[in-house]
Amino acid sequence: MKYFISSLCITLAGVVSAEPNFTYQPTKPQSGDAITITYTPAGILANTLKKVEAVIYVMQIGGKIVANDLPLVKKGKVYTTTIKTDTSDNFIQIGFYVDRDFDNNFNDGYYVLLYKGDKVRESSFLSLSMFYDGYGHSTGVEPNNEKAINAVEQEIAIYPESKAKYYNYYYSLLEKIKPDDAQSLIENEIEKKLKGNVKIEPDYSQLADLYRLANLPEQSRFITELQKKAFPQGEWQVNEELNQFYNEGDDNKKLALAKDILNKVEVNDVWKKISCDDCYVSIFENYIKKEQWSLVKEEFAKSKLKVEFAQTLNNFAMDWQEKNNDIDRAIEFAEMATSAIKQEINNSTTLKPGYLTGKQWNKHRELIYTTCVNTYALALFKKGNYKKGYDLAKEAAIAISNGRNPGFNRTYALLAEKILSTRECKKELEHFVRNGKASSDIKQILKKIYIVERKTEEGFDQYIMLLEKEAYFKMVDDIRKSMINKKASSFALKNLNGESVESQSLIGKIVVLDFWATWCGPCKASFPTMQKVVDRYRDNPNVVFLFINSWEKEDNKLKNAFNFIDGNHYTFNVLMDEDSKVINSYSVTGIPSNFILDRSGKIRFNTIGFGGNEDKLIKEMDVMIGLCEDPSKTF
């Protein structure tokens, strides 16, 4: 691929080709220009017979991201399109895809740097750095620390005065690949800062950040206290109160903070730039917790945050039906949430978030709707209203999700058992199993049907195994194809008992790293299943599980992690990554994030997130660990 930009970015854009598959005109596009793009499918899309689609993410001055679907016109094998830029734009990221597969240009990605005259515009290379630091993940580009550092260095080379704005970001990147160099540079920067004049508030913030990066928390806190005294009405108070709001566990205190923030936004210019949505949601949650039902209905009816409030209602309804608490209220709230989201989809009153494309926004609202419908159906199941519950569950699991969501399939199965004939129910549930989308509850229902039909449970395991065979082999094949071979960052961390664990000491063993945080919902949802996985390998000395606690927001991170693990009776070996250096060294973009290392210490698998399917996670872990033991292993 060739980028006609400048000699500065040739090394970033890729190898010059006589026939580039991606070009744009003008060659030095200015912010505000219309840019014509041509693209010939390459990489994973090179021989596709399907229609190629595209998406763009435009980064603007100030850090705002605007996403849009990008219409393409095909002529022969070449696709063309025109992008109309805004004067505030500085960088364009483009993703070409078919289904869920992106052509990532051999992990260089496709992008356009915008210009001001003959010079790349300020912040454009910074945006490129962020693209390689994780933002490119949305178009199939995996993080690359070296490319990210190179890009920010290009930014500083063109605009030396920007160094003061970006050095915290730059040193954070440098710490991931050259921690010793970073430490020395940070110390030099601190010395320069102290010799200079620390006058304005950003000077204090930057100095405090530098001390934090140098792993000198006491000095960082001291500078922050000086900042507060020098600027009692400064911007520090915004960040401090917002952090206090998000970390506050007491409902009454959180409510008071939310109201205080909303009042300050009304009268204080320093506060006007922040979003207050979470404060409104917090107040709404407080009404529910205090059972102020008339206020709940009143606020829900007049709020402009229909999607957010509907999700809040659904969360409470789901919790109540799971615990069999106030099923009637759960039904009422789930119905309110379902109706509101359906109306929002049919007649939207909410602006699309800038960071989502039109298609993504539609899918996002559809998922919220089906989640609310699923909760509604479960609550009706608990109430004994099987017919209405079945109709709703069928809409969520079959009509909308096409049987691809194991959680929705479970709800449908519970209600199908009550409504359908044994023959019809068996046929539907077997379909879920064959496609690898069945939960353990679905298999239990099939077991009951099997026993009724055969008068014995003998042979049931083989029956299920035959149903799962096709999906299982496909899963194994997909996992085998996802196998990688990357160098793993070494680390030395202490566990909850204060014992040091060094990664180098584990060479010769298969190591499963699970990065997590106590505030992470999917992390916590995955832990009961991960406990079962740990138990499966408890007697295997050659497989080690390490749960690395990182990205925490609490002041006492060790106590916070210990209380969570101990309170839930997990037997995990938890390591404390309090300064987040280890998680950053692995370029983690989201949690839970699992890395499976082979006996030589190489990363062979990396998975992100938890879809809620317990059986699937256990089988995937078994296969990945098995392939780390022997890549040629058959299953």
Describe this structure in words.
The protein is an alpha+beta fold. It has four domains: 10-155, Sandwich (Immunoglobulin-like); 179-232, no CATH class; 263-477, Tetratricopeptide repeat domain (Serine Threonine Protein Phosphatase 5, Tetratricopeptide repeat, Alpha Horseshoe), CATH 1.25.40.10; 486-629, Glutaredoxin (3-Layer(aba) Sandwich). The protein contains 23 helices and 19 strands. The chain has a six-stranded mixed β-sheet with strand order 12-19-18-15-16-17. Strands 3, 4, 7, 8 and 9 form a five-stranded antiparallel β-sheet that branches. A hairpin with a 4-residue loop joins β3 and β4. α8 runs antiparallel to α9, α12 (306-322) runs parallel beside α14 (358-383) and α20 packs across α23 (614-629).
Search tags:
Serine Threonine Protein Phosphatase 5, Tetratricopeptide repeat, globular, 635 residues, disordered N terminus, 5-stranded antiparallel beta sheet, 4 domains, 6-stranded mixed beta sheet, Immunoglobulin-like, 19 strands, alpha+beta
